[in-house]
Amino acid sequence: MHMQLSKEEEDALDGKYGDALAVAYRILFAIGNAMDADRLVPVRWAHISGVNYNTIGDAGLAFLERISKDALANNVKAKVMSTLNPMGYDPVKGYDDDRFVEKQERIRKAYEAMGIIGSYTCIPYEVFPIPARGEHVSFAESNAAIYANSMLGLVTNKESALSALASALTGKTPYSGLRVEEARTARTMIDVKHDIKDEVDAALLGYFAGKVNEQCISFRFSSVHDKGSSSSIGVDGRARINAKALCSALGTSGSAGMFIITETATAYSTDDGTKHRIEYTTRDAIMVKDELSDEDDGDAIVFGSPQLGLNELGMLASMLKGKRFKKRCLLFCARCVYEEAKRIGYMDAIERAGAEVYSDCCSCLTPLISRDEVDSVITNSVKAAYYLKNWNRVGVCLKSMRAIVGDECYDV
């Protein structure tokens, strides 16, 4: 099947409006044909990854600068609201590797020259107004894509940095994958028989579920729990922390782009093989934790993958009143969230407790955490645990935020 394009889309694809727009349409056209899309549909918002120099390297930088230069020459700007994922460092605090900083700044300038907002956050859903339910967006950050689909009722695939950039410049995306209603039905249900007490429990469940490798996963919170246990995954209060943790871990371990919560297992007990039911038990949770958490302690504490939102900062500030961290603590949040938390007063308790707060970056693929300085870290994030182990090559101790504060602080 070949996608049907309008005359304007064909002209753009053929280079009539410059190379930047032609490349963007070629990306979307290739993806659409590969995924049997019949057309392009408009999006309201694009969120772009591939911002950290450690992620895209010199080849990605060269591509971005070429596209940005052509876009500037042909007066091409982002057609819809477009935002950026975190960089590799905090430009206000600086970093002592001049080469890294120079390359990172060139990436930043290339994106911003195309009219893309320098948000540098992996939680855009906590920073910007949310479109109406059912609207199409193009989110490349996996936790944001899964959160948008699962918690906010938006519609997106787990986009790549290239496809999200193409959507930013065109305002469009192929009608395929999770954009098609039939794909947003789960074929596999995970019957959760392990109690979800905190964000680490939620993330371990997400990491387990991601390995099923389905586009859409269904969760049923078993009747062994309290009647309201399914509300432990939500958009408000403590439930939001759990939802973010689940979404980020689900996106880390596999291809899933969304989940739904179901109340009944009946539909997943068919004999024709089209639907499947998998139990998730305490034994499974322990096995996943053992895979990711290989240390009993750590030299430093890391919070913020995904970046902490205002709600989490408020909870942490409350826990830290009258306390101080025993060891170095690195905390990552969006700059606008930091400024609001500072205004409210949350940051007083957090910074008095000794936390180093970094903005515009996060703990994933950051050069700020090095094996030269630490052998292992303590974190409440499964996503951070995965990247810190596999990219930074440091050991990891997984604990909830509350447990970290309880174990790693002293009273002042």
TrEMBL record:
Keywords: Iron, Lyase. It catalyses: (R)-5-phosphomevalonate = (2E)-3-methyl-5-phosphooxypent-2-enoate + H2O. Residues 3-405 form the Phosphomevalonate dehydratase large subunit-like domain. GO terms for molecular function: lyase activity. Its EC number is 4.2.1.182. Pfam families: AcnX. The keyword Thylakoid does not apply. Belongs to the AcnX type II large subunit family. Heterodimer composed of a large subunit (PMDh-L) and a small subunit (PMDh-S). Component of a hydro-lyase that catalyzes the dehydration of mevalonate 5-phosphate (MVA5P) to form trans-anhydromevalonate 5-phosphate (tAHMP). Involved in the archaeal mevalonate (MVA) pathway, which provides fundamental precursors for isoprenoid biosynthesis, such as isopentenyl diphosphate (IPP) and dimethylallyl diphosphate (DMAPP). This is Phosphomevalonate dehydratase large subunit. The lineage of its organism: Archaea, Nitrososphaerota, Nitrososphaeria, Candidatus Nitrosocaldales, Candidatus Nitrosocaldaceae.
